[in-house]
Design goal:
Elements: H1 12-23, E1 29-32, H2 39-48, E2 53-58, H3 61-73, E3 80-84, H4 90-93, E4 101-108, H5 122-132, E5 136-147, H6 153-165, E6 172-178, E7 187-194
Parallel strand pairs: 1-2, 1-4, 2-3, 4-5
Antiparallel strand pairs: 5-7, 6-7
Length: 195
Amino acid sequence: MSRAPDGGIPSILEFTHGLVRQVVRSADTVVDATAGNGHDTLFLAGLVGPQGRVYGFDVQAQALENTARRLQRHGAERQVTLFHAGHEAAGRLLPAGTENLACAMFNLGYLPGSDKQVVTTWHTTEAALRAVMPLLRAGGLVTLHLYTGHAGGSAEAAAVHDFCAALPWDGWRVLRYDFLNKEKNRETLLALCRQ
């Protein structure tokens, strides 16, 4: 695990990216379930390289435009397919034969700098998880970055926690990473590793 730039404890984003780097290799197939402004999409595209494939989902056209521009600026658009759909559509939009996924990344909440009323919900997140989890290879990873500083965020996070806590030990390992004393804009990472 890489250390934070200041030598301290890694932020949730740094910790997440460190975990993903340990799992994703060149030519892998991965999912960015919430493309947002394209930061994780670009990160994943760099890991899988031109021979790999990233499938990105977002319900907001502006998010996909932001992501596409970011990918183009870095010459990484070739290995990415973007879907203008919520992540709950993964089950029907991922191409037939998509299996052995190395990773699926989720950032739950709302698109920074956009309409805070457009948010992920447990209903859509559950559908997405149930679609992508069976496609993960052994050792594959799902990351769920939970934000609770918006309306409905705490309820979604609680439902995600309950779902993950109920996963069988013989099939999954679930890691939780957060800062207990962070008072504002609470966030938590849940990382699910398929056994």
